[in-house]
Amino acid sequence: MDPADFTGASPRPRLRRLRALPRLRDLVRETRLHRDDLIQPLFVCPGAGVRMEIGALPGQYRLSVDQAVEECRALADLGVPGVILFGIPERKDPQGSEAYAADGIVARALRALAAADTGVLLVADVCLCEYTDHGHCGVVDKGKVVNDATVELLARAAVTYAAAGAHIVAPSDMMDGRVRRLREALDAAGYEDLPIMSYAAKYASAFYGPFREAAGSVPRFGDRRTHQMDPGNAREALREIRQDLAEGADIVMVKPALAYLDVLRAARAAFDVPLAAYNVSGEYAMVRAAAERGWIDGARVRDEILLSIKRAGADIIITYFAKEVAATLP
After folding, report:
1. Rounded to whole angstroms, what are the CA distances from 260 to 1, 11, 171, 175, 312?
2. Catalytic residue from among 92, 142, 144, 202
3. Annotated catalytic residue 255
4. Is residue 202 annotated as a catalytic residue, yes or no?
5. Potential cystine with 173: which of 87, 137, 285, 314 (Cβ 3.0-4.6 Å)?
6. Active-site residue, selected from the candidate residues 92, 255, 310, 323
7. How far apart are CA 313 and CA 275, in angstroms?
8. What average pLDDT values come out for the chain (330 residues) when binned by 10 residues?
């Protein structure tokens, strides 16, 4: 008989029985966060010996390539399985050419990390916003981001990163058709076994502010609402995910995570594929700021947020908390 069928009859169910002791709570816990679920974002920059804290992201740093290698060794020791790399270029131009240059900052970092063989998975974010002098995610013509010309440059970047040692490429631009073009370019270059993790449902969110400071990618004019998704749309996210899977994506992502748990849950119900979620910079920064003021228990709020993302259906969580939380996880 279903316990819900009991009304006034004896014995009555007492759900608190299984909450009485810590070991009991652990025994019946439905959702568990594991360090294998986590990916740590890293910002790589020119120079040597650089470890510069990012003002809007306390505890996160711009790292020169040598420091990024040391950081990956530390992450490997903690059991964090992967990093996703974002580049701070030496120069910017209208086409974001350092994104796909063989000597660009991310390509250099990938080669150094591959040579160091830290055992950490290397995910390369594929976008142009950090590398363009206008701060937009692609080629701009008459004030508009041009889709197809941008896609061609993204494909060049993906092949550059594959050649430098990336284990996964992750297009985050939200151009139409970019997954198909990346897959074609990677296959033609001999990287048919390299997975694509698509930022499939990426929203035009106000939660990205600290990242834009970290990456120096604030648009000089306009915004990204012409290509990133409207926050009011959930059904459209499933269309975006379905399209990216049809084009060859191996992993799909919802970004941001916390304000879009309903989208994450809907994606989990609709698609039986690896699903990632990005616990973005604004989500991280709010927890840090409130914890510093003593308004919240930062560690408990951190853990509750990450557990909620896992509970909603994420297999992979990209989070700035990865390094610190890994030490507390099985």
Report:
1. 37, 41, 20, 21, 10
2. 202
3. yes
4. yes
5. 137
6. 255
7. 7
8. 58 90 94 97 97 95 98 98 96 91 97 97 95 85 91 97 98 96 98 98 94 77 82 98 98 98 98 98 97 98 98 98 95
